Amino acid sequence: METKTKHAFDTRVVHAGRDLSDRTGALVPPIHPAAAFARESLDAPPQYVYSRRGNPTRAALESAMAELHGARHCFAFGSGMGAVTAVAMLLKADDRVLLPDDVYSNTHRLFTHLTPNNRVRAEYIDMTAVANVERALAAEPTAMVWLESPTNPSMKVIDIAAVARAARARSVPVAVDNSYASPYFQRPLELGADIVVESTTKYLNGHDDIMGGAVFVNDPGLAERLALIQYVGGAVPSPFDCWLLLRGMKTLALRMERHQENALAIARFLESHPRVATVRYPGLPSDPGHEIARRQMHGYSGMIAFEMKDGAGAARRVVESSRLFQLAGGLGGVESLISYPAMGSGASQMGTAIAPSTSLVRLSVGIENKDDLIADLVQALRA
Ligand SMILES: *Cc1c(COP(=O)(O)O)cnc(C)c1O
Questions:
Q1: Which residues pair with 198 in a beta bridge?
Q2: For site-directed labelling of 116, which of 164, 184, 244, 263 has its Cα 20 to 30 A away?
Q3: Rounded to an integer, what distance in angstroms lies between the CA atom of residue 123 and that of residue 86?
């Protein structure tokens, strides 16, 4: 598919996915719930055969999302983890994969408890220093480098272009989970990554009302294998969910600007609060990841992590005292959410590579009025 780059992102995101061959002139694509498609004869294969393999509503979504990442190919999945699992299926027995030591909890579970059944070996390293990645690549043959930036939940920033350069020197593909940034603020394919994953449940949909995932690649060989994994693995989204995601995506640019404006105001407020020990928000000049983030991101989204001076008790009181910020594990939607990663899905009986700090609080800042949001945190921090 051709990617159209003549318009700015905020224009393209509104028009992406429109089927110009549709004779009805419909401004939005229809929902095609059909599971199967009829053909004229055995020798005349139709454009669509069976919806697990391909569906017109899903195709409209995939074409729209591909355009946002400047990708040649996009594959939609029924959840972010469906997309992560599809990428993991590219690996084969005795392959070694490097991941960040604070990678998203369920990606960690996948690579610790499921892929070892296929003799895939995962190693967790601190990727905030590229030298650590270089050393690990030099030590042993590696089949894939997996990273996310900013990381969930601790908001560390990893230099995507530098990791991609180090990996490319050894012909190792790099996969980036971009869920915390969205394509509006970060496009890893442009930074040298080979594979991008999004949990579209998060910012791309933005309304906390569907689950979805997507994988983006340019390489035709990877695209061919991912098409087979999507078709045969079968973790595809429903046409209804594809349509909702197409609808939610149209406001991505507007929402991300507002998430960022609100989050920056809240990060500054938290930074000056006497009961808060540390704030991680890459948009803050004081953030250890700020310089790298400034180079590789176009903005900083709505995710904030902060630690309370008085430890676990204080952190728990904050998350249980906020009212506008609802206590819930999701992120990236229009409503503000607060969570306690040490007891959320981030903390597993199965363990994570590094457990989240018990004084850590995570915010997904929504698009409400920022004075109301700050007032809510003022009272929650008094609790
Ligand atoms: C939420 C999330 C996922 C998983 O996505 P689901 O849609 O919940 O399956 C993967 N990676 C990151 C960084 C996430 O935040």
A1: 214
A2: 164
A3: 19
Ligand 1 midpoint to CA 172 (Å): 24
Residue nearest to atom 8 of ligand 1 (CA): 80
Q: How far is the CA of 80 from the centre of ligand 1 (A)?
A: 5
Active-site residue among 52, 109, 121, 250? 52
Task: Determine whether 104 is an active site residue.
Answer: yes
Six-digit token string for 41 = 């004869």
Q: Tell whether 215 and 329 lie within a shared domain.
A: no
Pair (182, 307) in one structural domain: no
Instruction: In whole angstroms, give the CA distance from residue 65 to residue 16.
Output: 8
Q: How far is the CA of 74 from the centre of ligand 1 (A)?
A: 17
Active site residue 203: no
Decide if 282 contacts 274 (C-beta within 8 A). no
Identify the residues whose C-beta falls under 6 Å from ligand 1. 79-81, 84, 104, 106, 148, 152, 177, 179-180, 199, 201-202, 211, 213
Shared-domain flag, residues 227 and 319 = no
Q: 102: helix, coil or strand? A: coil
Q: Which residues span the domain enclosing 294?
A: 252-381
For the segment 133-183, what is each residue's pLDDT rounded down to a tens digit? 999 999 999 999 999 999 999 999 999 999 999 999 999 999 999 999 999
State whether 258 and 245 are in the same domain.
Answer: no
**Which residues face 307 on adjacent strands?**
278, 360
How does pLDDT run across 182-202, given as a tens digit for each residue?
999 999 999 999 999 999 999
Q: Is 236 in contact with 77 (CB distance < 8 Å)?
A: yes
Residue 67: closest CA among 22, 25, 8, 26: 8
Per the structure, how many domains does the chain have? 2
